[in-house]
Design goal:
The complex is a heterodimer of chains A (535) and B (379). Chain A is an all-alpha fold and 535 residues long. Chain A is built from 26 helices and 2 strands. A two-stranded antiparallel sheet of chain A has the order 1-2. Chain B has 2 domains: 2-148 and 280-342, Periplasmic binding protein-like II (D-Maltodextrin-Binding Protein, domain 2, 3-Layer(aba) Sandwich); 150-279 and 355-378, 3-Layer(aba) Sandwich (D-Maltodextrin-Binding Protein, domain 2), CATH 3.40.190. The relative contact order of chain B is 0.18. The chains are: A mainly alpha (535), B alpha/beta (379).
Chain lengths: 535, 379
């Protein structure tokens, strides 16, 4: 079948429908993009942060690699190779100032790692100072930064650098290029010098010919030459003679184990090493374990020390207080909603305004108002003292504890219970109650057997709304709860803003999200989401 | 009250302009500089003193627009977030010494060459010597502005004290003679030191004890003895409010906040200077600014931390200037007209017993001790 312009009808129809669908898509596109950017992306980022742990392997790549041979259950620290790798990593990390972040990260898992890395970070650049001094004693040219650039740098790069230096410019120095000879004859020295050159030029913006290389460069050179004196032959002219002199000289061996032990004797215990090894993987369950008071140990997953166990308690407190608040809201809200639904329109409207007025008032204002009412020198205590119910020295403590949180939150969340209840009760015809009574039911059984079951969808909606809002509350517990009336969200805020443990904050947030989803699922199984009426 | 504050602020704002204009020819021109800045500070009376003493005179001289962000309470978190996002939204951040140490350690703040960037003292001393005279140079990133102290205030009308007045720090731990609620900061720093001092530890041994096994627990055990009588605060403005309401009978906070409660608002509160803890507050320049913004910030720093500017700030708030050469210029309060010197934490009568915040110890041990303290607090 064809349309008037000869196109098959089916195709023409499809095209028209497609255009319609596209238009519909365009209409919802702003919302879709908005939800994606402001809701799903942050949640995705949070989920990712709660397992992301690349900081350890990025900051200590050599240590992590060389630690893989070390037995986690070992009673002794690893051997010199690992100490050397850590010295290498730490020298670079302290230059880039990443060792402090790493210390903070590892300290989340084992207390003491932060101060250990910070204090050793201050010492590590002096490790091997005596060795590099003895090299300069052997031949003063080694104290000249240029010697190192000539030895290890590509001649073409050196020439380029010279002509740049001649222009007198401060920036734009050509980046270090190793020579092919150095790369094959002295690979490790060249690697470390390369790292030094990159940091000096790119990060610190300094002239490579004026900066003394790290002691680590000198130590590595001595070791490489001692291990393979023939490497000297690969170099031309004066370099060969200088390197041969090192091979022949009596120079001490570097001892990194001793240097680390000297800086802090915790390094010669297995503890810091097992922490590094346990948390070396780029992705870790560590934050989630931490969020439920567990931790990784060489023997497997184990509970944290008793004085560090707080999160399970905080989760339970949050759930328990949220349930209490929900129950109180239901208890207080049900009669109000019933009155609203059954009073004549005039009075009902007035009552409705009284319910909505606090609903329209800022959360912070209401919380502060409760503070004024509940504090020791507050309105309620003053009245009680004035009428002589309590003595002036026995004022009630209703703030900075769980009671304060419960009272203020119940009041704040009450409209969220009353409004769904009211909208459901409004639809229950009053004739049902009258019919029940005319059939012989007394007031109570008419209510319990006829009215109440019909109001259950409203109860369900109100409870789920209040509970889910309560479980994530932050500002009211913060202001009213003192130290013992705070919720898990206050702890999350603390980790985001103060302790900067964003991984743990993300894990706690994820758990909170999962708890809400699970409760929602359970609720759906037993009450049925289709029975929920929000209006 | 509000109108008075507003009027006061306007009066303050116009005052330093005359001084600023006289100074104009000394301010070098700024080449390749951004024409706006975002400064992060603490809000409240402190930020108002910075606006009056630095920002408005600078804007009057240069026409630069200055926007304020009141986020210093979580400065390091915000700098880290901005740095991770690769979009540093602040040009200059006001932080306390320990936060400066942290930002510097983590590479979030850039190092400032004092002698190249800052103005020499009016007495001819180099910036390094001038700031060094007050001991305020903590690290290479931190440009100090003020010396402040954390100390205690108490109500002068507590009937239950039977006429006794606290004259020593340990009154805070003495519930028998001085019953009532106390306000303490919900952070370990200073609280642990005070607890140990009142547990019989000598000043010189404090950090040895804290570093030793069980040292922190000993301090917490001392705090446990008053724990049920403590309201924990997180913002410095809370203690004066709690004291004024009679919710607590004594509490720790920054001395400037107590000054304003006592002298400006005439509350029945007195200072307990015993074992005040000195600290520094100042600027750090965040890493990751482009050249024009960096030039502007350095230009502003040169102006805002010179001798006169730092001395001007002390007209509005009772914090001591961080430059040696500014001290003799500290005069009277801009609106109350009272001498500021006796209200400064550095006044000899006020500093018979004092501590200086041990930045290095806290930088090393902050993570550990903070975790222990917060867990203690949550239980």
């Amino acid at each position: 079948m064809l349309t008037a312009d000869g196109v098959p009808l089916r195709r023409s129809l499809n095209r028209a429908l497609r255009r319609q669908k596209l238009r519909a898509m365009l209409l919802i596109a702003p919302l879709l993009v908005f939800v994606l950017i402001t809701f799903l992306a942050p949640i995705g980022d949070m989920l990712f942060r709660s397992v992301e742990n690349q900081i350890v392997s990025n900051t200590l790549p050599r240590t992590v690699a060389s630690l893989s041979d070390w037995d986690l259950a070992s009673e002794t620290p690893p051997d010199e190779t690992v100490f050397r790798a850590l010295a290498h990593d730490l020298v670079i990390a302290t230059e880039l100032k990443t060792h402090t972040r790493l210390g903070s990260r590892l300290n989340y898992e084992a207390s003491g790692m932060s101060s250990l890395l910070r204090s050793t970070g201050r010492d590590v650049e002096d490790f091997g100072e005596d060795l590099s001094a003895s090299l300069a004693d052997l031949d003063p040219v080694w104290a000249e930064p240029v010697t190192w650039a000539d030895l290890l740098g590509d001649p073409a790069w050196r020439a380029e650098h010279e002509s740049w230096a001649a222009t007198g410019q401060r920036s734009g120095a050509p980046a270090f290029q190793p020579s092919a000879t150095a790369l094959t004859a002295l690979p490790r020295t060249t690697e470390i010098y390369g790292a030094f050159a990159r940091i000096t030029q790119e990060v610190n913006g300094r002239n490579l010919m004026r900066q003394d290389p790290w002691h680590l460069v000198a130590i590595t050179l001595i070791e490489e030459i001692k291990a393979d004196p023939a490497a000297a032959q690969a170099f031309a002219g004066e370099h060969a003679a200088r390197l041969a002199a090192i091979a022949g000289a009596d120079l001490a061996q570097a001892d990194f184990t001793a240097a680390f032990a000297d800086s802090n004797d915790r390094w010669i215990t297995p503890t810091p090493w097992s922490v590094i090894a346990l948390y070396a993987a780029p992705y870790t369950p560590g934050y989630f374990l931490n969020a439920v008071d567990l931790g990784k140990t060489p023997e497997g997953i184990a509970p944290r020390p008793a004085d560090e166990q707080v999160y399970i308690m905080l989760f339970m407190r949050t759930l328990w207080l949220s349930l209490t608040i929900t129950a109180l809201c239901l208890l207080l809200g049900y009669p109000v909603a019933w009155l609203l639904a059954n009073l004549p329109a005039r009075q009902a409207n007035l009552l409705m305004i009284l319910v909505l007025l606090p609903f329209w008032t800022s959360l912070l204002v209401r919380t502060s108002a409760w503070k004024v009412l509940l504090q020791r020198q507050g309105v309620i205590n003053d009245v009680l003292v004035w009428i002589g119910l309590i003595g002036d020295d026995a004022r009630l403590v209703m703030i900075n504890n769980q009671l304060g949180t419960v009272i203020a939150m119940t009041h704040i969340l009450l409209p969220f219970m009353i409004l769904p209840l009211y909208s459901v009760m409004k639809t229950i015809p009053p004739t049902y109650m009258r019919a029940a009574k005319s059939l012989g039911a007394n007031d109570w059984s008419a209510f319990w057997r006829v009215y109440f079951p019909q109001s259950v969808p409203g109860i369900a909606a109100g409870c789920i709304l209040v509970f889910i809002l309560a479980i994530g509350y932050y500002i009211t517990p913060e202001l009213m709860g003192g130290a013992r009336g705070v919720f898990i969200s206050n702890r999350i805020a603390y980790h985001i803003g103060t302790s900067l443990n964003w991984g743990l904050a993300a894990a706690l947030g994820t758990i909170l999200l999962i708890v809400v989803l699970v409760l929602y699922w359970v609720y759906d199984r037993f009450v049925g989401v289709n029975n929920v009426k929000l209006g | 009250m509000k109108i008075k504050t507003l009027l006061g602020a306007t009066a303050l704002a116009t005052l330093p302009l005359s001084a600023g204009v006289a100074f104009a020819q000394d301010l070098p021109a700024c080449e390749n500089c951004a024409d706006s800045m975002v400064l992060m500070s603490w809000g409240g009376a402190y930020q108002a003193s910075q606006v009056a003493a630095y920002a408005e005179p600078y804007t009057a001289l240069t026409g630069v627009t200055i926007t304020w962000d009141e986020g210093s309470n979580e400065a390091v978190a915000k700098m880290r977030a901005a740095s991770e996002a690769g979009n540093m939204t602040f040009d200059l951040v006001d932080v306390e010494g320990p936060d400066a140490q942290r930002a510097c350690d983590e590479g979030l703040a850039v190092e400032v060459d004092f002698d190249a960037v800052l103005a020499p003292g009016t007495d001819g001393s180099s910036p390094t010597d001038d700031f060094g005279a007050s001991g305020s140079i903590i690290n290479d990133c931190f440009v100090p502005q003020i010396v402040f102290s954390t100390t205690f205030g108490y109500r002068t009308d507590v009937a239950a004290w039977n006429g006794k007045t606290p004259d020593s720090l340990c009154a805070v731990f003495d519930l028998e003679n001085f019953p009532g609620m106390r306000a303490l900061e919900g952070r370990p720093k200073k609280n642990l030191e005070w607890a140990l001092l009142c547990d019989g530890v000598a000043k010189d041994d404090l950090y040895d004890v804290l570093s030793s096994d069980g040292g922190v627990d000993r301090a917490l055990a001392k705090l446990d003895t008053i724990r049920d009588s403590v309201v924990w605060w997180s913002a410095g403005a809370e203690t004066p409010q709690l004291l004024a309401d009679g919710e607590v009978v004594m509490g720790s906070t920054y001395n400037g906040r107590l000054f304003s409660a006592i002298e400006e608002q005439k509350q029945p509160i007195a200072m307990l200077w015993d074992w005040q803890v000195f600290d520094y507050d100042g600027w750090v320049v965040p890493a990751g600014l482009d050249e024009a913004r960096m030039n502007r910030v350095m230009h502003f720093l040169h102006f805002a931390t010179d001798t006169q500017r730092l001395a001007d700030q002390a007209k509005y708030i009772s914090y001591g200037p961080a430059r040696g050469s500014s001290q003799p210029l500290v005069s009277t309060h801009a609106t109350l007209g009272i001498e500021m010197a006796p209200h400064m934490p550095t006044n000899p009568a006020n500093q018979k017993n004092y501590l200086v915040n041990n930045i290095e110890w806290w930088a090393d041990n902050q993570d550990e001790v903070e975790a222990v303290f917060q867990n203690w607090l949550a239980r």
